[in-house]
Every structure is written in structure tokens, then in C-alpha cells.
Design goal:
Elements lengths: L2 H6 L2 H4 L14 E3 L4 E3 L1 H7 L6 E3 H10 L1 H86 L1
Antiparallel strand pairs: 1-2, 1-3
Protein name: B box-type domain-containing protein
Amino acid sequence: MSAEDYQKLPTFMQEISSQCRDHKKKYELYCSFHACPCCVQCVTDKHKKCQEMKPLSDILQQVKSSASVQLFEKDLKNVKKTWLSHKTYKTRISTINTQKTKAVEEIQYMRKSINDYLNKLEQDILTDLESKHSKLKSNMASLVQQMEQQAIR
């Protein structure tokens, strides 16, 4: 296992030692009876009578190639894939929420701009109407006054 792969392991796995705590020697054998790894010194001290001593490398190879480990690796890959999909969807949700917020702001800005334009247009039309109304009223009043003066003569 490379140092980079080792760093990716969870902390509890990194803390598992490959050396015997009692003798500070590398584990080389596995006692099937006691289900534990052993160094050479352990065999002579604690496992003299144990018959089922096997090289640790053989046991590890069997474990790595066992169906349950392969299924576990497959399940782990599926969990990773699902987790990545979950993460992707959460990112997408965040993105579409941001896009929605921006769209709402743009719509509100456009609505305000349209309202401002329509209010100005209404004011201009009302001002123009008032001006024309005043001129027309003044002209008509002037005509009425002229007609009244001609009627008096």
C-alpha cells in the first residue's frame, strides 16, 4: 500500500499496528486457535502448543480474495457512488436556488422599470391632456364670448 493510500485510510485503521506490542517485532504469523497475529517471539513465548500457525501474508491474501471482502469492496464503491450522487444533487439544488433568486430579482427589477415607465407615460399623457383641455376650453370660451358680443350688436 502506498503512503498516499495509507493517508486516505480512516484514523482507526491507521492506528492499527503491524508490530507486536509486547516484543516490538513485526507480526509474521497468525494463530488460528487464538485468532491473533503473532511475532516470532510470541510463538515461542505464548503459542508453543498452538498447531494452527500460518504465515500472516497467506492469511491476509485469503482475506483479500475472500468473497465477503470483495462484496464489501463492491458495496463500499456503491456507497461512494451514491454519496457522490447525493453531493452532486445537493450542489445542484443550491445552484438552482441561487438561479431562482436571481431570476426573481430580475423579474422584480423589470416590473419596477415597467411600472416606472408606465407612471411617467401616464403623467406625460395627463399633462398633455390637461394642456390641450385648457387650450380648447379657453378657445371655446373665447368663441362663446365672441358670439355673445355679435349677438348684442
